[in-house]
Amino acid sequence: MLLTLLAVSFIVFAAFEIIPGDAAVSRLGSNATKETVEALRVQMGLDKPFIVRYLNWLSGFVKGDFGTSISYNLPVSSMILEKLPITVTLTILSMIMTIGISIPLSLLIAKYAGSKFDRISYGTNQFVMAVPSFFLGIMMSWFFGMVLKLFRPGGYISYKKDFGGFLGYLILPAIAIAIPKCAMSIKLLRSAILTEAGKDYVRTAYSRGLSTMEVLYRHVLKNAMIPLITFWGMAVADMIAGSIVIEQVFNIPGLGRILLTSIANRDYPVVEAVIILIAFVVLIMNLVVDILYRVVDPRLRKD
Amino acid sequence: MKKWFKKHQNFNFITGAAITGILLFTVFVSIFATPYDTTAMSVADKFAKPSFTHWMGCDNYGRDILSRVMEGMGNTFLIAVLTVLIGTVFGVIVGSLCGYFGGLLDDILMRINDVLFSFPSILLALVIISLLGTGRLNVTLALGIAFIPSFARIVRSEVKKQCSLDYVKSAALMGAGHIRIIFVHILPNIMPVLLSSVMIGFNNAVLAEAGLSYLGIGVQPPAASLGRMLSEAQSYLFTAPWYAIFPGIVIVLTVLGFALLAEGTTEEN
What we know:
The structure holds two protein chains of two kinds. By secondary structure, chain A is an all-alpha fold. In chain A, about 75% of the residues lie in helices and about 0% in strands.
């Protein structure tokens, strides 16, 4: 895993090295004299060979120093640290919603498989999966803001000032991210539950006199969760990516905002740091998924 | 029950085909003519409500939304098709070579592929765009590259499965070369799987393109694009909600149509 992270960091660093444009020139503007540009290049360490710069950058990374933002002239780490709680809260909220809604709902749907209820939920599911989350966000801010007047679009409250208000503001964006994921999870979980429900151990459980709900919750669900764990693990990365767009919809100054403005300003240290951070999260999630497999399925623990 | 199920599948396919057919027809018509000029502004029609003259109303410059939606659909379709094309061609090449030959190359490429695959495609595209710059061509290229890993992964695992089958061995015994075995013998056999993943990929491409142009880094104005229209419409959400609703519905219908088609074809087999 560490090796993969190293490879990713190298590819990212190399990719941003290849593109034309001099960081020193872009920081000073085009009418800077040659001497000042040269001086800044030395100060930024741009005069050293590629590998040396990569190693410097990497060692800085390990120490938590992500470099200096070109356009804001601030340390990248403090910029990111300030915004990180927003995106993390948003992701956690939507993850909780996804899991909390999809498990009971798919159990319910699986219980009535083949009925009218199943068919209706199948149709709804197909439809919901086709709705892009940012369109859902726009429609929700229109509906809750305009029709019900429960919500003030753009009225973001900083988490430092009022954490409750901050959470309240994040609920709609989290729903917008969670709903498409919910639809996908329900679809996967329903078919997983139905496959499991046809197996022998389920019949045994019934013959022991357990009720349907007990069988579903205690036996079937555990086995049906296995494909879902993979999906949810990948969904975390997706949600972070989704929050980049949703933050724009609801005007939330999170990680996505930094990434977009940095891309527009060609502020590469920030872009690199955000990418590496997300790659790190992706890899951690892969690890968590592997561990969860072993928790859910004892057969995997042996080797 | 079984009969109902059979009917259900056909229902998927037929609805999907109908929606996609209507949308494709509209795109086809928009190549030759739109009801109004897509960039013609008119102060009198500013925020005109949907009516018989302007079916979907008008935007903040008094431009006809239906005409712009038609043009935007064309752009979205074009970008999505090219994206999937890039993704499929390179995905098939990388995936089949890795799956067929295996070995060190396979190990290295698939390790990289796994990391790229777990990276959300819209994010990957954003990174590539930050390297290449914005614009329609760059977005297509970026999305195309971002879609390669998922295709490569699917093709590789399918090719691996096929490799152990008898017909591949017989082909090798008959003296067929590696390239011939891969592209003439194995590839046709993985077509069904590839086809359904192409359709799902197309949907993801439509969604990703809409997301990117919503963020303002896709098709550049004055050319119309569905995502861009949504982001412009958001500022006027309270005065002209229809400006946001119609482009959004078109995106939903496009994705829904293809999702139903994919569902219908995979369950048919």
